[in-house]
């Protein structure tokens, strides 16, 4: 079971290592982890994508909550939610044919070409992880992928549900 | 406002926190704090011989009093030597504050002399930790450290103090915070009312209930509440290794310890129960035996201050998050509120069944005229101390014998490393108990293996005149390892034999203590009484015990709770 867990925690040095340490120490899985300060700079918001059965997820949320730096924990996959990941792909674009096709593909996937040289295009794409995977699959058939960087998933619940301090 | 240096702030904050004893060892990066401590008359500093022992002493101090234990060590090796002690306290939820020196902030991360990332290395075994980067942070960090250590599910907290932050030449305004406010940490003691009502209704209806108590009942000082609940519902009570004493060991409703080396009656009562009320216990693997076969007919009600301990290993029916004392009070109130009729007569059949198991007398053992049995030593200790001593134990067979053969009357009387199982814990823990209770009778039950893991503290005992009585069950082997090798490894006793033991009597004497060697069963009681008559002396009793004795009962691996070896040749017949 893939789960998105949102964590609101004190924006203090060491807080991130406690979260990451918890996962490795207790043998939980991290698919991706994103973290950044919120509109309130004393707080950080984290989205963790993890895998596990119901009991494991329950333990993860309880153990996260037990960390002294953690204010709120929510499994946002329990309700409807929005999740996004950003990806930058640098790919070989040496011929006119490839360049044209790359441009078309980027448009279809609503991506943008954010850097271009004589040899290379860098495409930016935002979406769900599935969409990013699909785009990469298509691209890799078209040309050589030089470098891929993905942000990891960040997510938010739809509607009124929100994590507040 | 008073102006103090960082080093002075540390000492003053400890004073303001009411710390009377601190266990420690000086070194380069805490010299300023030690200098500030030099003329202090309010805090007694205990100079240990190894930092691990400092933490165990603070731990024994904390376990026996319920107060937060305090430790002060230097950076690098001073800090790393604390880790086993901190992990021991963490596993057993013992409140400690460990102050460690650190290299100056400008050198952190540069592989400086005696630098180690203490915050990082201790992270998996602390409840929380603080690194003070400026002197002004010290009062609040120490206040929070004590608060976090003592509240909620207690545990150890580390405060790392870089050398420059302690600088005696730079003074800052000092004020110790009166209270703590942390938006991310608000432990609650009271349980959910609805769940509590469900729980008492289930208790009133149960035909075969068992009250299963653990270390949480001790931590919450819930002995009185446990007793009232047990009385009201006429409940059979069993305890984990950590909970011993939270219900009187000699009480007729007490079935003894449960689990791997639990009694026949306790493990059978658990297995056949229709309702188990767990209070501050965590269904540890040393209790449940094979989880899939655990208590097949029982509904489970679980009271615990830590939500993460609930439904961790065993799914429970009624979870109640809260402190044991508060929640049981709430339960007793709910009984009145709901006008519950409690018919204790309905438990008559259940008690009859329990008495049947009890009649098996699983703790009986055959004495010998020529060799002392380890069980006999504990019984002799019980007699000599009238059952009222503090007993700190090391880890191994002797620990199980002490747990089974010394029925503890009161909580905090039994001091042992239950979760981590730390050999070397016993002597320093006993010393910590003695510092907290100067007039009390304190025994350290240990073995020839365990005692050698912190034996250097005999020197500390001499320095401070600590009259603990060391009861060493000497079987010239690592008894528990040897027992497992005999039972599960075809008797291949790989490296479990101690070939070159010191002469413990001479060793004790060389540290200025009294040593006594006992090997004649007929002289055991007399020697024990003599040892305890030397009230102001440390006595090391080196007692030669039967090297082939095993701890029984012992649960059979992958079985239910009721599947046990009762002796080397007898095992239970299981009806299901």
UniProtKB/TrEMBL annotation, chain A:
Kindly tell me the pathway this chain contributes to: Amino-acid biosynthesis; L-isoleucine biosynthesis; L-isoleucine from 2-oxobutanoate: step 1/4; Amino-acid biosynthesis; L-valine biosynthesis; L-valine from pyruvate: step 1/4
Q: Which EC class is the enzyme in? A: transferase
EC numbers listed for it are: 2.2.1.6
Domain ACT positions? 4-78
Q: Which UniProt keywords apply?
A: Amino-acid biosynthesis, Branched-chain amino acid biosynthesis, Transferase
So what does this thing catalyse?
2 pyruvate + H(+) = (2S)-2-acetolactate + CO2
Where is the chain membrane-spanning?
none
Q: Which InterPro entries match?
A: Acetalactate_synth_ssu, Acetolactate_synth/TF_NikR_C, Acetolactate_synth_ssu_C, ACT-like_dom_sf, ACT_dom, AHAS_ACT, AHAS_small-like_ACT
Q: What does this protein do?
A: Catalyzes the conversion of 2 pyruvate molecules into acetolactate in the first common step of the biosynthetic pathway of the branched-amino acids such as leucine, isoleucine, and valine.
- Assembly, per entry: Dimer of large and small chains.
**What's the protein name?**
Acetolactate synthase small subunit
Q: Which organism is it from?
A: Pseudaeromonas paramecii
Q: Its gene?
A: ilvN
From TrEMBL, chain B:
Residue ranges of domain Thiamine pyrophosphate enzyme central in the record: 196-330
Q: Does the keyword Thylakoid apply?
A: no
Please give the cofactor(s) recorded in the UniProt entry for this protein.
thiamine diphosphate; Mg(2+)
Q: Does the keyword Metal-binding apply?
A: yes
Pathway the protein contributes to? Amino-acid biosynthesis; L-valine biosynthesis; L-valine from pyruvate: step 1/4; Amino-acid biosynthesis; L-isoleucine biosynthesis; L-isoleucine from 2-oxobutanoate: step 1/4
Q: What is its EC number?
A: 2.2.1.6
The enzyme's main class, written as a single word, is transferase
Show where the Thiamine pyrophosphate enzyme TPP-binding domain sits: 394-542
| Domain Thiamine pyrophosphate enzyme N-terminal TPP-binding per the UniProt entry, residue ranges | 5-118
* CDD domains reported in the protein's UniProt record: TPP_AHAS, TPP_PYR_POX_like
Pfam families documented for this protein: TPP_enzyme_C, TPP_enzyme_M, TPP_enzyme_N
The record describes how the cofactor is bound as: Binds 1 thiamine pyrophosphate per subunit. Binds 1 Mg(2+) ion per subunit.
User: What keyword terms does UniProt attach to this protein?
Assistant: Amino-acid biosynthesis, Branched-chain amino acid biosynthesis, Magnesium, Metal-binding, Thiamine pyrophosphate, Transferase
Q: Which reaction does it catalyse?
A: 2 pyruvate + H(+) = (2S)-2-acetolactate + CO2
Family designation: Belongs to the TPP enzyme family.
What name appears for this protein in its UniProt entry?
A: Acetolactate synthase
